[in-house]
User: What shape does this take?
Amino acid sequence: MIPALRAIARAAMAARPIPLSELQARAELMTRVDHSYLVPVEVFADFAARLTDPHRTGGPFQVLCINGRRWFGYHSVHYDTPDLRAFHDHRQGCRHRYKIRERLYEDSGERQFEIKLKGRRGETVKRRRPLLPGEATLGRGPRGFLASVLHGAYGIAAPRDLVPSLVTDYRRATFVADGRRITCDAGLVCRDAGTGRSVRADGGLVLVETKAAVTGHLTEEDRLLRAYGLRPAEFTKYCGAMAALRPGLTGHQWRRAVRTAFPREAA
Assistant: This one.
């Protein structure tokens, strides 16, 4: 077991469990502000222990638990145009930018077709639609859903020439408090769907994402991570991995985070 996976497993086992239905009621956060951090395992262990401490003021963060499991496998396929329009829209900071993916929850077999949009204030807005057993990811139903979401959010047409661009696999533990959620990912492996080339994230880092309602203020967990000397990383799995897998792509704003997350590739 790599150090990052061991770290999230230990943190998850030390926390009080919460079922999925209660997590969704307390912090579904389909519209939210999120920040990403690349956290060394030693720092993560102390960070998680503080947030899940039973004596924490306001009560401890709890961990998602489904059928006795506290960390889960995620398999995602990201879709883009052949010229990577979605990637370059994010690189250029375009106002109307979005990501398209299919997510498979490996432990349950559930599949979701998801679209992540950027709101006017920089917030993340997620829209999703369950995929039925055997349903094609880019079949008529999902494409209709994509067209409806993009027209309603941005007044634009959906791209027609979508192809798989990136495949990601990782393990995740999710911690929750009222109105806030923290996802902790380990063992990230990313594969270029076009070339077959893959990169593996540093096994000594936990990718922590803080998610909270749009308030304009830093959360307690953001302030705590900054107290460790960490700052939000210019990093998303899709854009960071594509920049690592295809060095010819222009992605200067992600260069530092990519070097940290994928040190072997940077070397």
Observations:
- Residues 140-154 form the longest helix (15 residues).
